[in-house]
Amino acid sequence: QVRLVESGGGLVQAGGSLRLSCTASGSTSLINAMALGWYRQTPGKQRELVASITSGGQTNYADSVKGRFTISRGNARNTMALQMNSLRPEDTAVYYCNGNVAKLDYWGQGTQVTVSS
How far apart are CA 88 and CA 15, in angstroms? Predict the structure, then answer.
């Protein structure tokens, strides 16, 4: 089993920056093999992929965040960060850390990001 815990959300003005972190604990073999990612969700909408990073370091970004957000994975492989710059009010959402391995999804509890205009 794997547990994911997010941190780093909060309130920021438009144009500002926030850094989200996710720490995975549990099975080392599962964590090392995992693709990790960030999703976000607003009320009444489906959860959407923001960015992801494979166990090999390949990254993928939603078009809406390209050039503004950067996903990274720590050397210990059980940590992941999302650096969010040039934040916009439309980035306001609950952000969830996701781990995917062997067709299984693991989710964190979510962290609120609010961007004021």
Answer: 6
| Nearest partner of 18 among 30, 28, 27, 9, judged by Cα | 9
- Residues 37-92 have pLDDT tens digits of 999 999 999 999 999 999 999 999 999 999 999 999 998 889 999 999 999 999 99
Q: Per DSSP, which regions of 2-117 are E strands?
A: 2-7, 10-13, 18-26, 35-41, 48-53, 59-61, 69-73, 79-84, 93-101, 104-107, 111-116
- Beta-carbon contacts of 32 under 8 Å, excluding residues fewer than 6 positions away, are 55, 77
Residues facing 107 on adjacent strands: 98
Nearest CA to 36 out of 45, 26, 23, 46 is that of 23
